[in-house]
Amino acid sequence: MGLGLGSSGGNTPGEEGAAHEVTRQTRSIIGVQFVVGVLVAAGFAAAKGMWDAQSALYGAFISVFAAVMLRRGVQRASLIAGQDPKTAMLTLYMGAVVRFVLVPILFGVGLAGLKLSPLPVIVGFGLTQLAYLVGMRRA
Questions:
Q1: Domain limits of the chain?
Q2: Beta carbons within 8 Å of 60's beta carbon, 6+ residues apart
Q3: Could you say which of 66, 91, 99, 134 would form a disulfide bridge with 77 (CB–CB 3.0 to 4.6 Å)?
Q4: Largest CA distance in the chain
Q5: Coil, strand, or helix at residue 114?
Q6: Each residue of 9-64: pLDDT tens digit?
Q7: Do 124 and 37 contact (CB within 8 A), yes or no?
Q8: Coil, helix or strand for 50?
Q9: By the 8 A CB rule, do 87 and 79 touch?
């Protein structure tokens, strides 16, 4: 299933296997993030009510969204790397910049625009991000 982007005109089986493994691992980690986000929201629902649960889900969404964007950027860069390593590196850096800008914007939309409860948003984001970091460390 080579895409013709490798240095030999196609991806080697090792490159395809490595890309597939990264995709599988990150998909699993994002699934764990989703579960953690739902559990945090359930905790806020039980303790404070549905508005705080929705706020926590929004915070978890920000973290999951950033992880999905990272995964897509890494996949894109790995496809480009065999052909042009500098462009692949630039792709990774640009993805980091976009995430660095989008995360605060999403917080602003949630807190200022939607008037979500700040503590659940931050806790939802923080614990979901922690799940991502722990998952990546184990991968």
A1: 19-138
A2: 33, 34, 36, 37, 38, 40, 41, 124, 125, 127, 128
A3: 91
A4: 59
A5: coil
A6: 445 555 556 667 777 888 899 999 999 999 999 999 999 999 999 999 999 999 99
A7: yes
A8: helix
A9: no
CB 112 within 8 A of CB 104: no
d(CA 88, CA 81): 5
Both structure tokens of 16? 């395809």
Which residues contact residue 136 at a Cβ distance below 8 angstroms, ignoring those fewer than 6 apart?
29
For residue 123, give the nearest of 74, 59, 75 by alpha carbon: 59
Q: What percent of the chain has pLDDT over 90?
A: 71
Is 83 in contact with 9 (CB distance < 8 Å)? Answer: no
The whole-chain average pLDDT of the chain stands at 88
**Residue 78, CA distances (Å) to 4, 83, 91, 125, 138 in order:** 12, 10, 10, 28, 21
Residue type at 37?
Answer: G
Beta carbons within 10 angstroms of residue 130's beta carbon: 13
Nearest to 107 by CA among 68, 69, 55: 55
